[in-house]
Design brief:
The longest helix is centred in the N-terminal third of the chain and has 10 residues, at about 25-35. A hairpin with a 7-residue loop joins strand 1 and strand 2. The protein has helices at about 25-35, 45-50, and strands spanning about 5, 15-25, 40, 60-65, 75, 100-105, 110-115, 120-125. It is built from two helices and eight strands, in the order ββαβαβββββ. Strands 1, 2, 3, 4, 5, 6, 7 and 8 form an eight-stranded mixed beta sheet that branches. It is globular, with a radius of gyration of 13 Å. By secondary structure, it is α+β, with helices and mostly antiparallel strands. It binds 2-acetamido-2-deoxy-1-O-phosphono-alpha-D-glucopyranose and calcium ion. Calcium ion binds near residues 111 and 112.
Length: about 120
């Protein structure tokens, strides 16, 4: 992986970078893009485990690339890979007002949340 990115043997050919500064979804997305990555897409429990191993326990929430900004209730990834796996918390996504983005907590579970909220981030390339 390039300097500053972490290789994880559980998911071959992929590198991750944790963004420890909290920002809005669009800001985090741009940070990842500037480094030739995207906010993370997640396609398996194995990948959840790989990413969890990079997070400090109880360190809050992290944006991933999943969103339904374009069409309500149609989940897509900002890296254009398919929405073929999910790890929602019980009762989520509940589509409260403007909840078009997704936070991942350190237990690996997902919640839909307004994109204007500030969270850490997970880039992938
Ligand atoms: C609620 O309780 P909290 O803040 O972790 C809600 C989520 C919303 C979130 C918005 C069970 O989560 O769905 O996205 O508020 N959880 C429940 O801040 O209603
Ligand atoms: Ca929610």
């Amino acid at each position: 992986c390039p300097s500053g990115w972490t290789w994880n043997t559980r998911v071959s050919g992929v590198c991750y970078k944790i963004l420890p500064t909290s920002r809005t979804y669009h800001e985090q997305k741009n940070v990842c893009r500037r480094e030739n990555g995207h906010l993370a897409s997640i396609h398996s429990q194995n990948e959840i485990n790989a990413i969890k191993s990079l997070l400090q326990p109880s360190s809050g929430s992290y944006y991933i690339g999943l969103n339904d900004i374009s069409v309500d209730r149609r989940w897509v990834y900002s890296d254009s890979t398919p929405y073929d796996f999910s790890n929602w918390e019980e009762g989520e996504p509940n589509h409260l007002d403007d909840e078009d983005c997704v936070e991942m907590k350190t237990d690996g579970r997902w919640n839909d949340i307004p994109c204007s909220r500030s969270f850490k981030g997970i880039c992938k390339r």
